[in-house]
Hints:
Number of strands: 11
Amino acid sequence: MQAMLPDLTVSPYTHTFQRRHIGILSPDGNVHLTGIKQEPAAEDVFACSVCNTVFITEEILNEHQRRAHAHPGGRHQCRFCPYYARNVKRHERTHTGEKPYVCKVCSKRFTQKWDLQRHVARVHEDPKNHQCNLCGCRFKLKHQLWDHVISHAK
């Protein structure tokens, strides 16, 4: 098992652009030097948008942000307004206009995965289960059937 020397690193989660000694941690707790660790290139790291601390994986960055910058109750503040939420990224899309979820059938874009899933189910997959008793026309949504039935009365 490799370990960073305790006196040479800020925390097990931080990563700065410096050379660090690495070693093998033996069962008795001693560290045996094995060399110098080269830090990753800038494009291979993930920086915290709040404090600029750099991490080697996005997972460690997310854990850092959750622990270090979370509002009490595990909530984070929006970068654009005073709003707090557990998943603030979803809210921030209302400011940025980002729509990362794309329908493979019609290319319509959505801000949330759930909205895409609902769209696909309603528009592209759901069978037409609502049938008009007067003419036999079928509809995907109940309110569409109601609108249709009303048209018979006109």
